[in-house]
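We modelled the chain as a single entity of 99 amino acids. Its sequence is:
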Amino acid sequence: MMTTILLMACITFFTRYLFLHRALPFKVGPKMQQFLSFSAPAVLTAIWVPIVFINDGGINLNWQNPYLSAAIVAIIVAYKTHNIYLTTLAGMGLFLILN
């Protein structure tokens, strides 16, 4: 188990190191940079969509779904304030109140 964790840490470090270290001759072109700019939103969407919309093995679009209500409030707060701390506090606060 510990060997797997250490190997994964090494793999993660070295794949990041190739992109971040300036002395290496590896450069990412503008098209690849544009392509990679979509990776973070895609990964985050893949994480939060099942959490918010799927409950008990099915899609739950009910207004009593605390995940959905908190997500909607978080989206509104993020749009209005552009403040990550206030957005997190509002979303988590409403979720804790509803749950």
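As a brief sanity check on the tokenised model: The radius of gyration is 19 Å. DSSP finds five helices and two strands in the chain.
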